Amino acid sequence: MSEVSRPTTLPAAPVTDAGSDTSNPDVATTDADIPGAGSRPDRGDLPHRTALRVTGLFAAGALLVCVTIASLAIGNRAIDPMTVLSALTAYDDANPLHLMVLELRVPRTILGILVGAALAVCGALIQAFTRNPLADPGILGVNAGASLAVTFAVGVLGLTAPGAYVPFTLAGALAPTLLVYTLGAVGSGGATPMKLTLAGIALGAACTGFTTAIVLHDLGTLQVMRFWGVGSIGGRTLDQLAWALPLIVVGLIIGLICARSLNALALGDELAHALGARVRVTRLWVIIAVTLLAGTSVAAAGPIAFVGIMIPHVVRWFTGPDQRWVLVYSMLVGPIFLLLADILGRVVLPSGELRVGIVTGILGAPVLIALVRRKQVSGL
Amino acid sequence: MSLEQPSVDFGRRYLRIDTARVAALIPLRAIVVSVVLVVVILAAGVASMTIGAYDVGLDAVLRAIVDPTSDPDVRQVVVEWRLPRVLFAVLCGAALALSGGIFQSLTRNPLGSPDIIGFGIGAQFGVTLMMIVLELNTYMFKAAGALIGGLFTALLVYVLASKNTMSSFRLIIVGIGVSAGLGSLTSWILISVSVEKAMMAATWGAGSLASLGFDQLLPATIVFAVVMVAALPLNRTLPVLEMGDDAATALGIRPGLTRLSAMVLGVALIALVTAAAGPISFIALAAPQIAQRLTRSNTPMGTAPVMLTGAALVVVSDLVGQLLSVPVGVVTVSVGGVYLAWLLAAQFARRA
């Protein structure tokens, strides 16, 4: 029962009203079919909570729209929102501002939204899947593996177009996910957070070493990789993004479909099985989703740290541990955060050297340290 | 001198040295392992001296070392240029391994190594800051940058992770966080300069023996010798301290003093190597564990075999690095990461 006693180790209220039959140990036995019936006075306002969540969802959506417009308007040269709107609705070839919005800022913003959603949902999926609140594509070595694959493609095979990286990053994201999970699952107790993290560090270190070995070989590779190695969403055209859209959307859909089963999985494999979740099938689909999301976003934007770990945590303070809400919220809050970080980088250093990967790295480090110093997480 | 079983059977054979002045009991296996490691170091060292832009055969290398009247050109290449690199590899390996042994014994944790808590990334950041931002490109400043960066990062991680008690999980996660933050800053600096400068900083930041000569070897050797002699008593006291403070006190060890001197000496050893060659990662982590398994000892602390293991690892890694033309630190990180994965798998499986 040790696994059951710490399903997600998250602090927030563990109750949902809809479909609570698989969501939580307390709920599953006490008020499976009486949502909000007042059986537990402290949670008597369950429909109200749902209303709050739906309202929050709309608020997040509205915020995302605002941030998107800001991302189109703010930059090396500020463009007022009205011009942005007219560039989108009534495009005028002669207007250089319209050209700037459409050619530079729209692709950048779209990529930011896609990658932000992919990273946040990927982080939420890995955290639910490994029952490890500190899991993240970066911590578990997925980014390092994808980086190694791209370095190999650039340094050894001489590929340069971002689209050509996709098969490599997908393979480079899949292999570490499987390896880390296999390595972490060795021995009794299954894949505990500690073991997974250590396995991630070990594989990440090895991948980083191999990456450095290839990079230091050749000035040309270093030239490409030192820029690629810092995640950035700038400098892409819409054509280059076309391949990323379907892959990320498919990944997000698979992730959302898995949400219910992940709720059951949080209780431990045996209980999840007893509740009717197909544990192995769910695991397989989650790994596919994680690979698609992490691999595509790394191919499109390079490794961007900490979005995957921060966003699900922030989201869970509001939604509680129900994966369906966590995933949907992550999908909206991830892009908001990524676009804000990108805007911040553009405002602080207009030269464009403060790329979004650097901003999230610097912002994320204190957040991660604060998270691990909190009681519930360190008690793992 | 005689081979014999001591009156208490520890399950090992010992070599007993019993003269009028000196008496010692040395495990036979440790001696055999040490001899084998010395052979490995010599072989890899000589092999590494044959590699380079100027082709020197194996026999020519040997002749140049032993015979002062041989071809002066070959002698210059082998003795003046390539020998110090090999000697440095031996010294760095020994120092890192001893430091790792001290820390692992002190923390009673095979992961208790500076590599885990961001020392390497910190040193890399320090070097990059010195070389590119401050444009202080001399050897002393690079060394100081690596040293201060590494020590400061390790200290920062330690302080941020401590909270009444020290949990190794927290230590590792804080290490990841700080490393990622500093790594972002390093990348930021690297993308804002020319690619040649970035290459220089990246090479130095990865840990390289390439730029070292006899000028640096002499002071490094003196410091190493002093620290090593000072660390000799720890060979006896640290394994006792592993039994816990109470037991150690009862056996005549002063825990506080031992711990303090162990930490100072361990940091000094790491600092020495980082100042000379930059961060050569994972030797401090791997060497004590490998030595412990080779000698079947019950502590990662054991002076001679541990230092020889470290030296052998670095000499062989440098040989591989030269063959692939990458810095030695890159080889040790790659191999060390794979090794760490294996170590963990073995550890997880044993707990089953």
Characterise the protein shown here.
The complex is a heterodimer of chains A (380) and B (352). By secondary structure, chain A is mainly alpha-helical. Chain A has one domain (2-30, 45-378): ABC transporter involved in vitamin B12 uptake, BtuC, CATH 1.10.3470.10. Chain A has helices spanning 2-5, 25-30, 46-73, 81-89, 96-130, 142-156, 166-185, 193-215, 219-228, 238-241, 244-265, 269-274, 279-301, 307-319, 323-348, 356-373, 375-378. Chain A is globular. Chain A starts with a helix and ends with a helix. Chain B is mainly alpha-helical. Chain B has a single domain (30-350), classed as ABC transporter involved in vitamin B12 uptake, BtuC, CATH 1.10.3470. Chain B is built from 14 helices and three strands. Chain B has helices spanning 28-50, 58-66, 72-107, 119-133, 139-161, 168-191, 195-206, 214-231, 234-241, 245-250, 255-277, 283-295, 303-324, 328-350, and strands at residues 2-4, 14-18, 23-27. In chain B, helix 3 (72-107) packs across helix 13. Chain B is globular, with a radius of gyration of 21 Å.
